[in-house]
C-alpha cells in the first residue's frame, strides 16, 4: 500500500485545526523562549545577589582579622558566629588561613581557590566547589558550594610579601530553589495565558468559519432535485468565488438535465409514432390476406415491431431513471398501500389475458406506509415487476403482492409460483440487457429499471426463491 504524501496528510487536517495550530505555534515558541530567557535572567540575578552577600561577608570577616607584630588578632564574637551559622540548611562557612592553605580559623573543608588564581588584595574571587555532606547537611552526597575568596596582605618575611586568605562559602541549594521559584512563578501565568489564548483562538476560528459551515449545511441539506443557485451575498468575500463556481456548476447540470429531458420527449415522439404505424399496418395487412406465406411474414413483422416498441419504451424509461434525470423529478410523500393497490388493479386485465391470478395478499397498514418518492417512477418500477411476473410465471400461475412495515422501511414483495430464476442469476438480472430466459418479448431492461428507480429512492431490491418453486422480488424503501 503506497504511503500517503505529506500534501495528502496535510489536507486531512481540518481547516479550523490548521488555523489554530498556525496561530498557537508561534505562541508556544515564544513561551519556550520566554522560559529559557527567564531562567537565565533569574540565575544571573540570583548569582549576583548571592555573590554580593558572600563578598560582604568575606570583607566583614576580614575586618575582624588584624595583624599584630608576627601574629594575628581575630576579633570574631560568638554572636557573629551564631549569625553566620544561624540557618542549619543554608549556613555561611568560613575559613581563615595564612599562608593560604594553612588553617587558622573556621571550617577547614572549604576547597581552596584554583591554582591559577593570583592574589589580588581586597578583590574577592568567586568559584564553585564541593564539600562533604556532613559540613552542609543539605544533601546526602557531596554538596555544591559557592565560595568567595579574599586575599589580604599580611606583612613581609625575609623580604617576601606574606598573604592571608579569607574564604566564605555557602551552599547553592538555596539559590537553586530561588531560580526554580522564579521560573515557576513566571511560567505558570504564561501557561494560563496560553491556555486562555487557545480557548479564545478556538472560539474565534469557530466564529470566523461559521459562514463556511452554514454554506456546507446549505449544500448538504438540499434535496437532489434542488438546483437553485446558492446565496452569494451571505458568504464572506473569500468564499464568494467558490459560491459562484458552485452556482455555475449547478446551472450547467440543470442545462444538461433539461437537454436530456427534451431528448427523451423528442425521442419518445419520433420513435413511438412510426412504430405504432408499422404495428397498425401489419395488423391491417394480417386481416386482409389469407396467403399462408404472407401471413407468416406479416406476423414476423408485427412481432419485430412490437418488440422494438417495447425495447424503445424501456430504454426511454431507463434514461428517465438515470441519476442526472432523476435529480429534477419532483418527489412528495406517497402512501405505498394505496399506490400498490392502484398498480395491481391496473395490471389485473393483463394478468387475466395471460391466465394468471393476481391479487394483494395483505391488508393496508392502518397508520399508512409513507415514503418520499416520485409516484410515477415508483409505479413504473412496480409495473415492471408485475409485467415480468405475468409474462414469465405463465398461465395458471398465482401472483401475490404484499406490503408491510419492516422496521424503519416499507417492504413490497411480489411472489409467484412460476419456474423462477436460477440462484446464480439473481444478481446478474439487475444488469442491463441481461435475461435469464429466452422466452417472451423481454429485452433485459425491466429489472435494471426497477433497480435504478429503487436505488434513486434510497431503497434496495433483491430476489428470493419460493417453495416449492417460484420467485419473490422484494423492494425496501425508507419510511418517512
Automatic annotation (TrEMBL):
Which SMART domains does this one have?
A: HATPase_c, HisKA
List the subcellular locations: Membrane
The EC class name is transferase
Q: Please state every residue range assigned to the domain named Histidine kinase.
A: 266-480
> What superkingdom heads the lineage?
Bacteria
- Molecular function, one GO term: phosphorelay sensor kinase activity
**GO cellular component annotations, sorted alphabetically?**
plasma membrane
| UniProt cross-references to PANTHER family, sorted A to Z | SENSOR HISTIDINE KINASE YKOH, SENSOR PROTEIN QSEC
Its name, as the record gives it, is: histidine kinase
Q: Organism, per UniProt? A: Pseudoduganella umbonata
**According to the entry, what is the taxonomic lineage of the organism?**
Bacteria, Pseudomonadati, Pseudomonadota, Betaproteobacteria, Burkholderiales
Amino acid at each position: 500500500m503506497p504511503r500517503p504524501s505529506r500534501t495528502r496528510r496535510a489536507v486531512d487536517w481540518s481547516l479550523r485545526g490548521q488555523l489554530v495550530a498556525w496561530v498557537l505555534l508561534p505562541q508556544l515558541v515564544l513561551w519556550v523562549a520566554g522560559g529559557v530567557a527567564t531562567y537565565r535572567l533569574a540565575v544571573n540575578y540570583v548569582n549576583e545577589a548571592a555573590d554580593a552577600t558572600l563578598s560582604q561577608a568575606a570583607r566583614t570577616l576580614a575586618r575582624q582579622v588584624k595583624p599584630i607584630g608576627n601574629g594575628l588578632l581575630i576579633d570574631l564574637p560568638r554572636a557573629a558566629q551564631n549569625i553566620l551559622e544561624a540557618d542549619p540548611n543554608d549556613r555561611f562557612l568560613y575559613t581563615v588561613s595564612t599562608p593560604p592553605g594553612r588553617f587558622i580559623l573556621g571550617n577547614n573543608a572549604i576547597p581552596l581557590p584554583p591554582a591559577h588564581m593570583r592574589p589580588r588584595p581586597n578583590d574577592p574571587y568567586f568559584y564553585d566547589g564541593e564539600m562533604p555532606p556532613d559540613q552542609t547537611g543539605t544533601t546526602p552526597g557531596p554538596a555544591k558550594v559557592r565560595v568567595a575568596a579574599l586575599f589580604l596582605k599580611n606583612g613581609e618575611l625575609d623580604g617576601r610579601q606574606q598573604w592571608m586568605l579569607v574564604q566564605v562559602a555557602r551552599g547553592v541549594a538555596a539559590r537553586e530553589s530561588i531560580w526554580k521559584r522564579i521560573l515557576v512563578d513566571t511560567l505558570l501565568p504564561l501557561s494560563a495565558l496560553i491556555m486562555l489564548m487557545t480557548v479564545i483562538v478556538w472560539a474565534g476560528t469557530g466564529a470566523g468559519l461559521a459562514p463556511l459551515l452554514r454554506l456546507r449545511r446549505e449544500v448538504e441539506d438540499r434535496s437532489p432535485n434542488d438546483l437553485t443557485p446558492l446565496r452569494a451575498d451571505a458568504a464572506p468575500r473569500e468564499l464568494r468565488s467558490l459560491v459562484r463556481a458552485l452556482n455555475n456548476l449547478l446551472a450547467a447540470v440543470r442545462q444538461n438535465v433539461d437537454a436530456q429531458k427534451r431528448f427523451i420527449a423528442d425521442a419518445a415522439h419520433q420513435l413511438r409514432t412510426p412504430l405504432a404505424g408499422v404495428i397498425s399496418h401489419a395488423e391491417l395487412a394480417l386481416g386482409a390476406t389469407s396467403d399462408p406465406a404472407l401471413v407468416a411474414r406479416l406476423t414476423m413483422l408485427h412481432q419485430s415491431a412490437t418488440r422494438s416498441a417495447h425495447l424503445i419504451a424501456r430504454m426511454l424509461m431507463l434514461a428517465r431513471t438515470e441519476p442526472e434525470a432523476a435529480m429534477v423529478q419532483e418527489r412528495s410523500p406517497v402512501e405505498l398501500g394505496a399506490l400498490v393497490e392502484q398498480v395491481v388493479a391496473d395490471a389485473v386485465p393483463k394478468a387475466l389475458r395471460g391466465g394468471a391470478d393476481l391479487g394483494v395478499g395483505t391488508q393496508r397498514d392502518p397508520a399508512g406506509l409513507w415514503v418520499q418518492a416520485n409516484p410515477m417512477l415508483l409505479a413504473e418500477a412496480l409495473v415492471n415487476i408485475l409485467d415480468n411476473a405475468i409474462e414469465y410465471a405463465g398461465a395458471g400461475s398465482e401472483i401475490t403482492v404484499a406490503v408491510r412495515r419492516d422496521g424503519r422501511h416499507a417492504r413490497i414483495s411480489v411472489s409467484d409460483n412460476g419456474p423462477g430464476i436460477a440462484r446464480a442469476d439473481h444478481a446478474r438480472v439487475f444488469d442491463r440487457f441481461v435475461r435469464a430466459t429466452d422466452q417472451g418479448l423481454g429485452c433485459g431492461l425491466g429489472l435494471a429499471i426497477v433497480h435504478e428507480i429503487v436505488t434513486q429512492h434510497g431503497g434496495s431490491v433483491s430476489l428470493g426463491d419460493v417453495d416449492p418453486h417460484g420467485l419473490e422480488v422484494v423492494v425496501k424503501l425508507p419510511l418517512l
